[in-house]
């Protein structure tokens, strides 16, 4: 009988990043494609909630992460609806860090990166940004022409800077 090669155990950093909706997940997937190296020693799971209130999104993230021991958990949350203090506490108690798309929402944040005027509502931000994308906003490839690596590297928007760092994790610390 042939001898079996021993399998090498690799300690991977596990990370969960939840988006508020499918557009958030598509943008996060786009960023992951740019910054994450496959052999980096980290495993990044991207998911999304089906929208709703901040309470619903936090509750959904807690539920989806309950049975997996992630090293770090994050929610990319729109900032147009305030998060109640008790929901912030639930997130914190569950080890979830909140990242906010400012101003207003993902689309508002992306418009600000492009140095465009930001409308006063999330819906108007969507109406302004979506036609500029190369395809359906639920597809990661749609963000590529406008948000290529040099554009994302060039912004100092705090949430994008944090996401670049998270998605580019090299090793467990």
Task: Using brief descriptors, characterize the structure shown.
single chain; Rossmann fold; 173 residues; globular; 7 helices
Counting structural domains, the number is 1
> Whole-number average pLDDT?
92
Helix amount: 25-40%
CATH hierarchy class name: Alpha Beta
| CATH topology call | Rossmann fold
Give the N-terminus to C-terminus distance in angstroms.
Answer: 40 Å
Q: What does the secondary structure layout of this molecule look like, with pairings?
A:
Blueprint: E1 13-19, H1 22-35, E2 42-48, H2 54-65, E3 72-78, H3 85-93, E4 96-101, H4 106-113, H5 122-129, H6 149-154, H7 158-167
Parallel strand pairs: 1-2, 1-3, 3-4
Helix pairs in contact: 1-7, 2-3, 4-5
Describe the structure.
The chain has 173 residues and is an alpha/beta fold. The chain has a single domain (13-167), classed as 3-Layer(aba) Sandwich (Rossmann fold). The protein has seven helices and four strands. It has helices at residues 22-35, 54-65, 85-93, 106-113, 122-129, 149-154, 158-167, and strands at 13-19, 42-48, 72-78, 96-101. Strands 2-1-3-4 form a four-stranded parallel β-sheet, with helices on both faces. Helix 3 links the parallel strand 3 (72-78) and strand 4.
Brief sketch in words of this structure:
By secondary structure, this protein is α/β, with parallel strands linked by helices.
